[in-house]
Amino acid sequence: xxxxxxxxxxxxxxxxxxxxxxxxxxxxxxxxxxxxxxxxxxxxxxxxxxxxxxxxxxxxxxxxxxxxxxxxxxxxxxxxxxxxxxxxxxxxxxxxxxxxxxxxxxxxxxxxxxxxxxxxxxxxxxxxxxxxxxxxxxxxxxxxxxxxxxxxxxxxxxxxxxxxxxxxxxxxxxxxxxxxxxxxxxxxxxxxxxxxxxxxxxxxxxxxxxxxxxxxxxxxxxxxxxxxxxxxxxxxxxxxxxxxxxxxxxxxxxxxxxxxxxxxxxxxxxxxxxxxxxxxxxxxxxxxxxxxxxxxxxxxxxxxxxxxxxxxxxxxxxxxxxxxxxxxxxxxxxxxxxxxxxxxxxxxxxxxxxxxxxxxxxxxxxxxxxxxxxxxxxxxxxxxxxxxxxxxxxxxxxxxxxxxxxxxxxx
Length: 411
Prior knowledge:
By secondary structure, this protein is α/β, with parallel strands linked by helices. The protein is built from eleven helices and 26 strands.
């Protein structure tokens, strides 16, 4: 390949690192620049709310590659560097120091940022968010010292942090606006299982509740005041109310943006020389038939290599079944598929729901399996993904029957 070709990756986390790895693995030997605003080497985020937060993984284990890998692969890795603009006409990006880096093609892997809780007291010391490794370390130190923790938001991050705080011995209150945690993600049937799980582990789960104010003394948090007037004391308040894609640069450059940078199945944006992958990309998914934005680790792992191959001119169509996992207390699970809030007809269970060793299947009206989640049952995810991918109606009685192999149901 021509050495005068230059690829620039904006964003230096897992997604950027996997794209860079793919460029070199596919034989590209031109200039390759990866630019990231953090000072850390590219790293994986799941441990930040799981093993690393709980003190069960060493810091070095989160990094995608060691430092010398980048030099060995001839990758110009620029950490602690912020991109301030894309100049599409000049085919260059502008850096915060005013310098420019030219590109033949550009890959955007800028990820997302936590939504902020905009209430009085939000600036107090002890109000924490989780996105970076530094955030995880601050939360780890905080829950080790705190006797009382309030977690605002009952999504995946909020519940994983809750489990870590309970394991550290803190009393934890979760404040969730919906009537169940994870309600919009899992639906009532399975969301109730997670609510029960946390209550069994001593969590004070406040549902249909909202934070009106974060209280404090001397600049330090002392608790939260709820919309109903109640007060919950806290030594730390951890806010986990979702994330928003970092589309500011793309939007300012005039790229098509709608809940993320709009890209096709090849991860190509409205500018043919700019691609996007990971949290920031709203990609057309051929299997699902619409644009979706997936905020989970597997997407950051697998989508950028597809984008890199497309940028190299290879035929690509990214259509992996969306996948994520969680570990909370003694519950481990994997989820594959895609279901919009309320977008299913019923949930079919196989196995021991009360004993938390089961598989749940979200069904469409026509009998197709839209998604499946295996809880404390392993080595079945490939079969679940095959069911989702098949798009065929499945007999519900067979789905419920553990004696019927899942592999036999996808055709």
